[in-house]
Design brief:
Layout (H helix, E strand, L loop, with lengths): L12 E2 L2 E2 H10 L8 E5 L5 H9 L3 E5 L4 H11 L4 E4 L9 H13 L6 E3 L13 E4 H10 L3 H5 L3 H4 L7 E3 L19 H14 L8 H10 L1 H4 L30
Parallel strand pairs: 3-4, 6-8
Antiparallel strand pairs: 1-2, 5-7, 6-7
Helix pairs in contact: 3-5
Length: 255
């Protein structure tokens, strides 16, 4: 709720429901979805979000407003998770089939990897972020991560230390890289307009629409892609390039 660029973004309406509920619907469509928990802050500004989750029978956990690593760790501990899947709350267009691919890759390679994502390096359009790790891996990061950005973004301590953790990555099978050209996440009002248009076009006839449906829509109606195109490639990496060891300047964009 405390977004500085778009306050209250998770409660903005999307097909007549708050955005966070639409996103919860999409995550639930994953074949491998386990217990889904929405981890909100203990700040009073999140009271409305907390109540909304409770009213809709959704598991919700309240934790530190800035230390997301601690919030995710405490939530995983409370719900007795042995494997933790992290998806940011600003991905309302996330494709459940992509979630399944990352989970299945982790399951099939569990003896090889401590952490699997589709972000290192990314290839899917921004806003399909999936990270899977054992509770033990998350706990190790919780104990050892000291830098502010490692605490704020939960998992950098893991993927920035490939000498300490075995890191796996799932790349888009098309071999295309749309991570810097297509933006499906929400951080600016233009992002919301883009996502709202996609929902208006696709949701009424196909409530399970996926990545290919969105890409086909953008090809048919390129004016929709242009709505938030200026922000494609903008992410938090740009603020920490001098500290990140595994991220190159080509993986972010300044505006």
């Amino acid at each position: 709720m405390g977004s500085t660029r778009l306050p209250g973004k998770v409660l903005l309406p999307l097909a007549d429901k708050p955005l966070i509920l639409r996103m919860h619907e999409r995550v639930k469509l994953s074949k491998y979805a386990g217990e889904i928990v929405i981890a909100v802050t203990n700040d009073q500004s999140d009271n409305q979000l907390f109540n909304l989750c409770q009213q809709n029978g959704i598991n919700v956990f309240r934790g530190h407003p800035l230390d997301l690593l601690d919030r995710h760790y405490q939530a995983a501990k409370k719900f007795n998770a042995d494997v933790v899947l992290k998806i940011p709350s600003d991905c309302p267009l996330i494709d459940p089939e992509i979630i399944d691919k990352v989970i299945l890759y982790y399951i099939n390679n569990r003896e090889k990897f401590d952490f699997v994502s589709n972000l290192h390096p990314p290839t899917y359009p921004d806003g399909n972020d999936v990270e899977v790790m054992s509770f033990k891996t998350l706990e190790s990061a919780w104990i050892n991560a000291k830098k502010d950005f490692e605490r704020e973004h939960s998992t950098p301590y893991i993927w920035e230390n490939p000498d300490k953790f075995r890191i796996g990555n799932v790349e888009w099978e098309t071999r295309k890289d749309y991570s810097m050209t297509h933006r499906f996440t929400i951080d600016y009002k233009e992002d919301y307009e883009f996502i709202r248009r996609v929902y208006e076009e696709l949701y009424p006839t196909n409530k399970r629409f996926g990545l290919n449906d969105i890409l086909n829509l953008l090809e048919e109606k390129p004016e929709i892609k242009k709505i938030n195109e200026v922000y494609a490639g903008v992410n938090w990496y740009r603020n920490h390039l001098n500290e990140l060891k595994t991220i190159s300047p080509e993986q972010t964009k300044n505006i």
